[in-house]
Amino acid sequence: MPVGRTITRHNRAVGEFEELVLQAVPAIEALIPADPAAELGRYEPRQWTDGRRHGTPAQRALDDFPGPTAERLLGALELGVARLTLTAPAETVAGLRPLPNGSSFSIVSFMGQSALKTPVTMVAAVHPGAIELITERVRTTATLLDLSGVTGDETAVAARHGAAHLALAVAVSAAVLNRLGTPTSKDPLAIVGIAIGVTALLLPDIPKPPAYARALLQKRRDEYRGSSWQTSVPVSGHEFVFVEEPSHSQADFTATGLVAAVDTGFAVRTGVEEGRVPVSVQVVLEVPGEPDVAHWDEVAEVSFTAVDGDARLGHGGMPPWPGDFRVRVSARGRDGDDDESHELLIWPAPHAEPLVHKKTDRVGHRLRGEPEPEREVAPEAALRWLATLLGEAATVTVITGLDVDDVVDDFEDDSVAVEIDGGVIVVEDNNYVGSNQEVLERLSRNGKAASHYWNVNAVTQLSFARGGVLVSSEEPWEEVDFGDDPEVAAALDGLDFADWRHLNAKGITAVVRFTGVELPREDLTAAIEELY
Fold this sequence. Notes:
Blueprint: H1 3-29, H2 34-42, H3 57-64, H4 67-82, H5 117-126, H6 130-141, H7 154-180, H8 188-202, H9 211-223, E1 227-236, E2 239-243, E3 259-262, E4 265-269, E5 274-283, E6 298-306, E7 312-313, E8 316-317, E9 323-332, E10 341-348, E11 355-359, H10 362-368, H11 384-390, E12 394-400, H12 404-407, E13 415-420, E14 423-429, H13 437-443, E15 448-454, E16 460-466, E17 469-474, H14 486-492, H15 503-515, H16 521-531
Parallel strand pairs: 5-10
Antiparallel strand pairs: 1-5, 2-4, 3-4, 6-9, 6-11, 7-8, 9-10, 12-14, 12-15, 13-14, 15-16, 16-17
């Protein structure tokens, strides 16, 4: 037979096959429920790297596809597929043959395995190449599906996308397997299972209908209720930006000394020139109340315009719509005397003039053209190193009038005692013996004892004892009353517990003041590093 005639006959068979399955698609699609169809339409497979996985690509895709969704699709399609009489032209399956008589194979079925997997595996074993042929026929015929006119919300468009392509895969699978004509190939579970696997394999790479992008954006807008997140952002040239596109406008910080609107977003002026700074972000949809400025050095706000919306900063982003917004920026540590960090509060609002709520750092005054303020060194600054070294849970106890041998029996193994001039300091790693009233009273029998305890949940306890009697023990906050003992009052003088920054350094400072000792940094650091 001439080659040209063979090619023509094959092409005619392919065309007949495509027409056959496309005519069957609407009736099959009508059987598929919207919810699992939408899940299929949105489906994105996991990324596997295990080279030991077996089976055809479609079998592996079926293995990865969510079992409950596959079961729902099977339940909807099984009876209808059993009645399908679609049969592919003989030429389209001419290369497929069952295993020769006498061939043997084994199928292992596992408890809890999907009802679809074994029938699909049987087809792969009895009809080698059949699943690959179905996959290729679906891949080529899918280009003929026209979903350009699909409309509706995101669920409706995703459901049409999933249902139409699954229906096509079912039609192709049924036509090919019915032509093979064996009990194995005509099993409805095999037909549906192969169709789901092929669809799950191919659909993530097939473009969704044109209406999907608009529908998805509208869904995100309708469902958006605000957002909050924490991140670390890159700093370049003393600023970081929150914009939709790289800005060509130069940020002018003279109005606020902290934040300025730029094209498609805003820029924040930092103290560090290069590197990264921690930033917490909150987006709300209502106008917020007055800012809490106690914990910040500078607080200012400006208006800016989102051109398209959805600008990203770290792993979070702006609302997915354009419009006018307001951002309130709070900053601390820009002068380099503290750890720098920033907080952003964003909400939709008409354009308004820049507003400065608090201005105390030198960077802000310099940018606004104002005389730089004199800033006093915080009383706890000298002991921040110890609080940082001890981390998120510890107790620091200082005792006078006793030596190391007198105190070690009161503490447990997770502690270290260092003798200092006039007494002993005991540091506990993630324990709180030193905050116990009986222990402190016993340790103060020849003088004074004081402790500061904190844990990972930000629970703290600051305690003072003298002459075997507990003088005061409270959690140090702004409104807590430690009593009227003059030595306790002197220990607390100037320590701002309303500002939670460096709270543990403040507590340690009060302990050191009350006991009147000096802490040897080098010896204490070495002992703590050995403990940890």
